[in-house]
Amino acid sequence: MNRRKFLGAAALATGVTALPGIAEAREGINAALTGSDAGDLAYLGGAFERHRGGYRGRPPAVVLGQMRDDLELLRSVLNRPHRAQARADLARTAAGISGLVAIIQHDRGDQRDAHGWFTTAEQAARESGDRRMLSWVLARHAMVPLNYGAPRAAACLAERARAEAGDAPSGAAALAAAVTARALASTGNQPGALKAVADARSIAEGLDRTESADTWFGYPLQKHHVHLSQAFTLLGRTRQAYAEQEAALALTSSPSVMVRALLAMDRATCVHADGDPAAAAELAIDVWEKLPMAYQGGLVRTRAESLHRALTGAAHERLGQALAR
Known about the structure:
The protein is mainly α. It has 17 helices and no strands. It folds into 3 domains: 90 residues, no CATH class; 115 residues, Serine Threonine Protein Phosphatase 5, Tetratricopeptide repeat; 70 residues, no CATH class. Helix 3 runs parallel beside helix 6 and helix 4 runs antiparallel to helix 6. This is Transcriptional regulator.
């Protein structure tokens, strides 16, 4: 049997799997070539684009698990030498992917790990020299203290994000303004919060399709209304909050599980502010009990617990029992 026929037979026999030593051979050849990491660099850039699309109906823990192999590859590639431009591009990709992991950990309620990943993302963004990436990382980082009880720290991060974003309309700048509105509303600074709401609206109106894309890297209109719903809810401006909730829900026939839950918790909080604590508790309980187990933690639980603390009497007890089950 000649060599060509032998190799063909071997491929068929093994189901066209890699022959022994082939992967090692490629690694050895790559090590001897300049710029030989191009395939891995291109793959990682595509991985960032793929992962930043959001949950798409998948629980946070599932998405995090699907990113594990890419994180390991990223760690490996970062430890190799690269030319200056390739290193800058890789650092930008590292900032983006690290930021996505931080977002997921934020949503899962792991504040410490979220802060750690955002710090890593900020370091990578600074190394890349990409101010747009840096402003996005800072704006998303601001949501960790914002959603977990440190609004002043959130406002400081959001201010840094807006400074890095510059004057051009961007998704990061719009998000930073929205975070500022929510943070100032949390501290009772109504004039400052309303000014930040106006800023967020003005920036959002000027976004192009790329900056307003429905991804974790963009600032889509639905996300805009979700943020303003929370800002107006915190301000006690229930009429405006209800309007933002309706606007967010009207933008898609099938909002994500988390978006529906957060908007419903905002609505329940507004119902309480309007003087009906019993109805507020029942609305929150209904949402909570229908929520898949994978979502009964992190951000949604934090929002439910905030309402629970505000309630008194029988309403407080009813919601507390539901959250304890």
